[in-house]
Specification:
Elements (H helix, E strand, L loop, with lengths): L5 H12 L2 H8 L3 H15 L4 E4 L2 E4 L1 H24 L7 E6 L1 H6 L1 H11 L4 E6 L2 H9 L5 E4 L8 E16 L19 E3 L5 H11 L11 E3 L3 H9 L4 E5 L4 H6 L2 E4 L6 E10 L4 H14 L1
Length: about 290
């Protein structure tokens, strides 16, 4: 089994714990030994890996890069070893999905995948776009389905679909009965996702393109759960912007209504993304999903 040099393992443990005492306990070594390992690496690499100020330990820019590279290296070597093993195990992998995609797109796609590849073991982690990109870069997941922005130089990608992003309100709210100017919505409470959410970034970008800041809305309520947002909007406690696929059922049964906004149409793609380099398994499994989407 592949094991990193013990000093690099100490570095990874300290980068996770951000505390010398907890790191020593975790690795079953002394605290001076932790310090010695880190000092050795910093001298060997001729860089500062950690910064200590106001009793707070943080990774330097070089430290963050080393952590990311070591986690990816560890993951890829283990994957290669599994491939070369005499008895090949059925593939297992973990992927990420944003909240909207995870709840409204993935159930059907996972069903198709399990039917096509019954021996595979898969796990899905749901989080916002920013978190999923970070997990990818640190080798914690193999690929991700996202709706937000990403660096196309670093990540390979495949577009899943183009999705309409619409404003909705309660059936009892008169906003849906006629086309509105965007500024006519500002007096209504806006329900939005948390910072880092792809859907929030899409709305902020669309508003910015119209020279509008999010603070133009009189009241904003931040909620990290789509189902909760929809329930509050149904009770006419505010309005929101969501992907049409996330409110398709409510639009059909009339519990939510689309607000038509003049000169404010938003279309945004959903993507499957993976690291272009150092992610052999991620690329291979991602290709299986891409075939199912074709």
């Amino acid at each position: 089994m592949f094991v990193l040099d013990y000093r690099y393992e100490t570095f990874l443990a300290l980068a996770e714990e951000m505390n010398y005492t907890r790191t020593a306990k975790k690795l079953h070594i002394t605290q001076p030994a932790v310090t010695q390992h880190i000092q050795y690496l910093q001298n060997e690499l001729n860089v500062d890996l950690f910064h200590y100020e106001n009793r707070q330990l943080t990774l330097t820019k070089k430290g963050k890069q080393l952590q990311k590279d070591l986690l990816l290296l560890r993951k890829e070597i283990i994957q290669i070893q599994k491939k070369l093993a005499p008895i090949e195990e059925a593939p297992s992998f973990i992927f990420g999905a944003t909240l909207t995609i995870g709840e409204y797109v993935m159930p059907e796609l996972i069903e198709r995948y399990v039917f096509a590849f019954p021996a595979h073991t898969l796990a899905m982690l749901v989080d916002n776009t920013a978190a999923l990109i970070d997990y990818l870069e640190h080798g914690k997941i193999d690929f991700a389905f996202i709706e937000g922005e990403f660096n196309q130089h670093v990540f390979g990608f495949h577009k899943i679909s183009d999705e309409s992003f619409i404003a909705v309100c309660a059936e009892t709210n008169p906003l849906w009965k006629k086309e509105q100017e965007i500024n006519e919505l500002f007096s209504h409470q806006l329900m939005i996702r948390e910072v880092g959410s792809g859907s929030r970034l899409i709305l902020e970008t669309a508003l910015k393109n119209k020279s509008i800041h999010l603070d133009s809305f009189d009241k904003i309520m931040m909620i990290g759960n789509i189902s909760t947002i929809k329930q509050l909007v149904k009770k006419d406690l505010g309005i929101t912007f969501l992907y049409r696929s996330a409110v398709e059922e409510e639009l059909l049964n009339g519990t939510l209504k689309e607000i038509k906004i003049k000169d404010f149409m938003i279309e945004h793609p959903f993507h499957l993304v993976y690291l272009k380099t150092a992610n052999i398994k991620g690329m291979e499994i991602a290709q299986n999903f891409i075939q199912l989407l074709s």
